[in-house]
Automatic annotation (TrEMBL), chain B:
The chain crosses the membrane at residues 12-33, 45-65. It comes from the Bacteria. It is found in: Cell membrane. Keywords: Cell membrane, Membrane, Transmembrane, Transmembrane helix. Residues 24-67 form the Cardiolipin synthase N-terminal domain. GO terms for cellular component: plasma membrane. It is a multi-pass membrane protein. This is Cardiolipin synthase N-terminal domain-containing protein. It holds the Pfam family PLDc_N. Its main location: membrane.
Amino acid sequence: MATLSTMLKKELLETWRTYRFLILAVVVLIFALMSPLIAKLTPDIMKMSFGKTLQLAIPKPTSIDSWTQFYKNMTQMGIFVVAILFGGTMSQELSRGTLVNLVTKGLPRWVVAVSKYISLVVQWSVALTASFLVTWGYTAYYFPDAKTPHIWQGFVPLLLFGLFFLAVILFGSTLASNSYGGLLFTILVVGALYLVNLFKAAQNYNPISLIGNNMALVQGSKTLGELGPGIAIAIGAGLVLLAGTVILLNRKKL
Amino acid sequence: MNTNWQLLADNLPIFIPLILLELILMVTALVHVLRHPHYRFGNRILWVLIVVFIQIIGPILYFVFGRGDDRRG
């Protein structure tokens, strides 16, 4: 256990020194700020571009628009940025041979995989929670209406999806010999999940449902209970992938 | 023009942190580009242009794909 916390410290220090955490945090905070801003400005932009030539009845923006923007940004650009930033987590160490010294001195390989995973999860949770709170604050300030009563219910699935998604990234990064291969693996997995999502029967069991129903959850037309199977499968698949990462790493030549 | 200023003033609580964050991202990347002469590909001028003129995406691209190894300066 002592080695795990030491490795974890090393991982967190590394992510700080390579600016990865800084970039992640700044980018998700920018998304968080842009969400209420775009929701608020959309009617003005429409007015400016169409002027008086087109008499459009543009509805006043509400908190729904703000949260829609947030979940759109996070589930598209947000997770893509995460995939790019962390796609090289394991493959970089493997290609540079920086693990050789540690492992030959007796560091168990599972510690490497688990510490990397924990560090990814910590970064994701901190950055996402911060951006969620920022959007929440601005949305409550600019759109004080009661149209989005279940704010936490939309956020929890996104956070949990991250646990699954990071396991996919780490597995892909261990499987591939370079960071592009890991990125490709991640994109393929997400693409496959979106394909599966076309079948209605599978929708509630699909981990991708965790990032597809956030607005329904926020507005209360869906409950977390309905997503229960999807959440269970996402967490289960995450653990399986983590175990798979350890097995892969055990067999890999460093 | 009047309405534009009004728009800006109304949304100042969002604009200020937004601009600040983009500046942090840009300046961090710019300083790194200027202090480290080795890149995985491209040259200094290319990366300075990318980092300064492509908002948000530019600095990400630099730190993920452009920065060279630190080990030998």
